[in-house]
Amino acid sequence: MLFNSLNFAIFLPIVFVLYWFVANKSLRIQNILLLVASYFFYSCWDWRFLFLLIFSTVLDFVTGIKMESSKDNTTKKMWFWFSIIINLGFLGIFKYYNFFIESFVQAFANFGINVDVWTLKIVLPVGISFYTFHGLSYVIDIYKNRIKAERNVIDYSLFVSFFPLLVAGPIERATHLLPQIISKREFDYTKAVNGLRQILWGLFKKIVIADQCAQFANIIFNSSAHYSGSTNFVGALFFTFQIYCDFSGYSDIALGTARLFGFELLRNFAFPYFSRDIAEFWRRWHISLSSWFKDYLYIPLGGSKGGTWMKIRNTFVIFIVSGFWHGANWTFMIWGLLNALYIMPSIIFNTNRNYIEIVAKGKILPTFREFFNILLTFLLTVFAWIFFRAENVTFAFKYIASIFSETLFIIPNFKRKEESLILVIFILFLVAIEWKGRENQYALERFGLKWPKVFRWLFYYLLIISICYFTGVEQQFIYFQF
Amino acid sequence: MRIKKFILRLIFFIVPILLLAVIFELYLQKIPNDYSFKRNYLDKNSNQIEVLFLGNSHIFYGVNPEMLNYNTFNASNVSQSLNLDLAILEKYENEWEKLKVIVIPIDYFSFFLTLEKGTEKWRAKNYNIYYKIPISYDFKDYLELAHGKTSKNFERATKYYFHKETNRSCNKLGFGLGNLSKYNQDLIKTGNESVRKHTVKEIDDKILKGNLKSLNSIIDFSKKHHLKVIFVTCPAYKTYTSKLDTTQLNYTVQTIEKIAAKNKNTFYINLLKDTSYLTEDFHDADHFNEKGAQKFTLKMDQMIKIIKN
Questions:
Q1: CB atoms within 10 A of CB A371
Q2: CB contact under 8 A, B150 and A469
Q3: What pLDDT digit, counting tens, does each position of A184-201 carry?
Q4: How much of chain A is helix, strand and coil, in % rounded to 5?
Q5: ipTM of this predicted complex?
Q6: Which end of chain B is less crowded, N or C, counting CB atoms within 10 A of the terminal residue's CB?
Q7: Does residue B102 contact residue B218 with C-beta atoms inside 8 Å?
Q8: Please, where are the H alpha helices in A351-442?
Q9: Tell me: the pLDDT tens digits for A428-454?
Q10: How many contiguous H segments (helices) and E segments (strands) does chain A have?
Q11: At what angle do helices A27-46 and A48-69 cross, to 10 degrees?
Q12: Which of A219, A233, A218, A239 is nearest to A405 (CA)?
């Protein structure tokens, strides 16, 4: 069940009404209802993988309790590694097995040796990377004595499987979400309206921008060899907006939906394309994953305490692992590596925390220097996204080579070019609204709140009409494949 | 109380949008298309029809009843599978007063695919909405708005309500006019594409049994109403026929041959590799253009005349 589907539009109000009107007498019943709804939501993709999700949940739940009740460190450590190995083992089998086998066969083939190793017909369970990371953070936090083990299996299962975040995050922390799960939740009118507004903005980003950008990006990427450098550059720009609006749109819907049930999820995006350098970009893009890697990988590796070389090494490690987390393909690794290279100057010269606040805070426009920095950072990410979008590394290099050819300076030309002009107008509208709302949690949070109600509603209706106009075949969210 | 206020305001906000959607849906469903046209035709004329063509796009674009001098109607449609042929026959069961012959294509894929399970599943709505034949329990298959892009639906509505352009693509006796262009498409490319689309990787037993059951029900129906049935495997171009999976093809041909031999009122003709159809007869690798349709219609005419007499 996709967030942008008619099924979800029916599912959500039903769960909402049951939650606040039928189950509202007891927190326990509310949590059971949300858990059942979440499992139903998940099983709409493939009910067989529900068992894997339940197994992973039970494993970490039991591990948590066992670790906490261990009398000696060895037993605790044994349980810890038991859970880590099984969790990563599942992730490895489902996500990376064929990749490693194929890479292994290819490596031998390069030396003229034919190795016949069987690959598996594996379907990747949706959301496996996300819920595995949920579980891992929980187990690590207990092991490090940061939190107490949860003793209620329903509450813990809901922490792992809460449907708004189940398939593509945000990657939650037990310290943040579990206390909300075990506390009584009261309906908050302002929060709920805020949630709806965020859902609306998320749908706009997904359906009006991301799905339309996808059409043109696909047209150009699929026939890039026949297009000029300028057209291929436009294709990369379309993909840049597609990936942002797809994933941040998903996150907006997830956060908004959670608010309807009284939950505050971790923020996942903070206007990353307004970043002034790559370090800032990574503090604003997929925040829940970046902070996960920072807390559970970068800091345990020594973080920035061991001098410049250790910082460099650790930065490379987390970016490569982050690339690999996205998928079993060398393109993702190079994407990670490229981002690590981008961020290196600020690591070496210790300028990576230069831009903490949002750009031009309290001002209408950025300074020329800020604008130049934003543009440069944006262009760097555009090139990195080419690796993310490409089917293989060779394709990505050819694509980039075609951009840096003499055809970069001719007028872009591609199929349905005229139709793309309407999209460009919508993209400009998006950028304007996001710029205006950049000091808030999401662009629409306070937009138009001071307007007369009739204008505000009219604005929302216009957004809804544009969503309805462009809606059609349900397009899966890109991050569902991770 | 706050939640009641929230819900009331939300309803108040959403009602205009829902109303607009309902009105739009109703207007969309009123735009004439092949399915509504065929249903209306059968509602009014089923008691006059002597020869009825059913089946998929091979018949839809292959048989023009205007060339035949007996009362004939082409009730086929793109991807119309055997269960739908049966459903159409049964829908008008008490009205086929003059019906003598039914023609049904049994093609390479006929036993292995159904409309509801294949890539053309989206067409199921046309039977639910326009034919009033309920073939799907998914509520979305009863809504035009749940299929295709709203922008395209908007375009369709504008064309019809402002320029009187309908979505009907068949002539007044049900022959599909979409392939009239003299220029054929890339026969190699379309051959490969169609073979890929029509070849099943793994046989779905449920679908196979369902299709055989539908076929037997059609035969029972024809016996009950004293009808003759012609099963035909339609001609296709060599770029299609040469790449077919022999197991799937042999199973199809052998099964229908056995069935035809067992039932005296049924006849089978296999024209798949008929060499009288040339490159210039095809629109794509497995569909005729206007010229090919003429040839095929006349061939069917000969068959029908023999069988009728």
A1: 14
A2: yes
A3: 999 999 999 999 999 999
A4: 70, 0, 30
A5: 0.81
A6: C
A7: yes
A8: 368-389, 393-403, 417-436
A9: 999 999 999 999 999 999 999 999 999
A10: 20, 0
A11: 130
A12: A233
